[in-house]
User: Fold this.
Amino acid sequence: MNRYGAQAQRHWQTYLPQRYATIADPNSFFSTLGEEAATAIEQRARELAGPDQPDEGYLGKLGRLNAAQRTAEEEILPELILIDPATDGPPGETPSASTTSASPAWTPLVEDPNDPWWQRVAQEEADQNDEPVPPTR
Assistant:
Protein backbone atom coordinates (compact mmCIF):
# COMPACT_ATOMS: atom_id res chain seq x y z
CA MET A 1 0.00 0.00 0.00
CA ASN A 2 1.44 3.37 -1.00
CA ARG A 3 1.30 6.56 1.10
CA TYR A 4 -1.94 7.73 -0.48
CA GLY A 5 -3.66 4.45 0.36
CA ALA A 6 -2.41 4.57 3.95
CA GLN A 7 -3.48 8.20 4.24
CA ALA A 8 -6.96 7.33 2.93
CA GLN A 9 -7.30 4.42 5.32
CA ARG A 10 -6.42 6.58 8.35
CA HIS A 11 -8.75 9.35 7.18
CA TRP A 12 -11.69 7.05 6.49
CA GLN A 13 -11.28 5.20 9.81
CA THR A 14 -11.30 8.50 11.69
CA TYR A 15 -13.77 10.66 9.77
CA LEU A 16 -15.87 8.22 7.72
CA PRO A 17 -16.29 5.22 10.05
CA GLN A 18 -19.64 4.12 8.59
CA ARG A 19 -18.25 4.15 5.07
CA TYR A 20 -15.10 2.37 6.23
CA ALA A 21 -17.18 -0.35 7.93
CA THR A 22 -18.79 -1.27 4.60
CA ILE A 23 -15.44 -2.21 3.00
CA ALA A 24 -15.02 -6.00 2.84
CA ASP A 25 -11.22 -6.06 2.33
CA PRO A 26 -9.71 -2.74 3.49
CA ASN A 27 -6.10 -3.61 2.58
CA SER A 28 -6.97 -4.45 -1.00
CA PHE A 29 -9.40 -1.54 -1.32
CA PHE A 30 -6.98 1.10 -0.02
CA SER A 31 -4.05 -0.35 -1.98
CA THR A 32 -6.08 0.00 -5.18
CA LEU A 33 -7.36 3.45 -4.19
CA GLY A 34 -3.81 4.59 -3.40
CA GLU A 35 -2.56 3.43 -6.80
CA GLU A 36 -5.46 5.17 -8.56
CA ALA A 37 -4.70 8.39 -6.68
CA ALA A 38 -0.98 8.18 -7.47
CA THR A 39 -1.71 7.68 -11.17
CA ALA A 40 -4.20 10.55 -11.26
CA ILE A 41 -1.80 12.86 -9.40
CA GLU A 42 1.08 11.95 -11.71
CA GLN A 43 -0.99 12.62 -14.83
CA ARG A 44 -2.32 15.92 -13.49
CA ALA A 45 1.15 17.02 -12.38
CA ARG A 46 2.51 16.39 -15.89
CA GLU A 47 -0.33 18.47 -17.37
CA LEU A 48 0.31 21.31 -14.93
CA ALA A 49 4.09 21.27 -15.33
CA GLY A 50 4.01 21.41 -19.10
CA PRO A 51 7.09 21.09 -21.29
CA ASP A 52 10.57 22.14 -20.27
CA GLN A 53 11.18 25.85 -20.73
CA PRO A 54 14.05 27.18 -22.83
CA ASP A 55 16.98 28.34 -20.70
CA GLU A 56 15.34 26.87 -17.60
CA GLY A 57 17.92 25.99 -14.96
CA TYR A 58 17.90 23.04 -12.61
CA LEU A 59 16.34 24.93 -9.71
CA GLY A 60 13.72 26.52 -11.94
CA LYS A 61 12.69 23.15 -13.31
CA LEU A 62 12.70 21.58 -9.83
CA GLY A 63 10.47 24.38 -8.54
CA ARG A 64 8.06 24.04 -11.48
CA LEU A 65 7.80 20.27 -11.08
CA ASN A 66 7.35 20.46 -7.30
CA ALA A 67 4.67 23.15 -7.64
CA ALA A 68 2.85 21.03 -10.21
CA GLN A 69 3.03 17.98 -7.90
CA ARG A 70 1.63 19.91 -4.91
CA THR A 71 -1.14 21.49 -6.98
CA ALA A 72 -2.10 18.09 -8.41
CA GLU A 73 -2.25 16.64 -4.88
CA GLU A 74 -4.41 19.58 -3.74
CA GLU A 75 -6.84 18.85 -6.57
CA ILE A 76 -6.94 15.04 -6.42
CA LEU A 77 -6.67 14.19 -2.70
CA PRO A 78 -10.00 15.79 -1.65
CA GLU A 79 -11.77 13.90 -4.45
CA LEU A 80 -10.36 10.42 -3.78
CA ILE A 81 -8.54 10.26 -0.47
CA LEU A 82 -9.51 13.02 1.97
CA ILE A 83 -13.25 13.03 1.44
CA ASP A 84 -15.02 15.71 3.47
CA PRO A 85 -17.27 14.02 6.05
CA ALA A 86 -19.71 16.93 5.83
CA THR A 87 -20.36 16.26 2.15
CA ASP A 88 -20.17 12.46 2.29
CA GLY A 89 -23.40 10.58 1.92
CA PRO A 90 -26.48 10.46 -0.28
CA PRO A 91 -27.46 13.73 -1.99
CA GLY A 92 -29.86 15.86 0.04
CA GLU A 93 -28.94 14.14 3.31
CA THR A 94 -27.44 16.36 5.99
CA PRO A 95 -24.51 15.03 8.01
CA SER A 96 -25.27 13.64 11.46
CA ALA A 97 -24.19 15.37 14.64
CA SER A 98 -21.52 12.73 15.25
CA THR A 99 -19.93 13.49 11.87
CA THR A 100 -19.83 17.24 12.35
CA SER A 101 -18.49 17.08 15.91
CA ALA A 102 -15.61 14.78 14.89
CA SER A 103 -13.55 17.71 13.59
CA PRO A 104 -14.22 20.97 15.44
CA ALA A 105 -13.93 24.20 13.48
CA TRP A 106 -12.02 25.80 16.38
CA THR A 107 -8.65 25.34 17.98
CA PRO A 108 -8.22 25.64 21.76
CA LEU A 109 -6.20 28.69 22.77
CA VAL A 110 -4.41 26.90 25.61
CA GLU A 111 -2.49 23.71 24.97
CA ASP A 112 -3.71 21.00 27.32
CA PRO A 113 -2.18 17.57 26.60
CA ASN A 114 -5.11 15.94 28.42
CA ASP A 115 -7.70 17.55 26.13
CA PRO A 116 -9.10 15.01 23.61
CA TRP A 117 -8.52 17.45 20.74
CA TRP A 118 -4.80 17.72 21.53
CA GLN A 119 -4.52 13.97 22.03
CA ARG A 120 -6.06 13.40 18.58
CA VAL A 121 -3.66 15.89 16.97
CA ALA A 122 -0.69 14.29 18.74
CA GLN A 123 -1.82 10.84 17.56
CA GLU A 124 -2.19 12.01 13.95
CA GLU A 125 1.25 13.63 13.99
CA ALA A 126 2.78 10.52 15.54
CA ASP A 127 1.12 8.32 12.91
CA GLN A 128 2.48 10.51 10.11
CA ASN A 129 6.00 10.48 11.55
CA ASP A 130 5.89 6.86 12.79
CA GLU A 131 6.72 8.06 16.32
CA PRO A 132 5.25 7.04 19.66
CA VAL A 133 2.64 9.37 21.15
CA PRO A 134 4.01 11.41 24.08
CA PRO A 135 2.46 10.40 27.40
CA THR A 136 -0.13 12.67 29.00
CA ARG A 137 -0.10 13.74 32.62
About this structure: The CA atoms of residues 29 and 84 lie 19 Å apart.
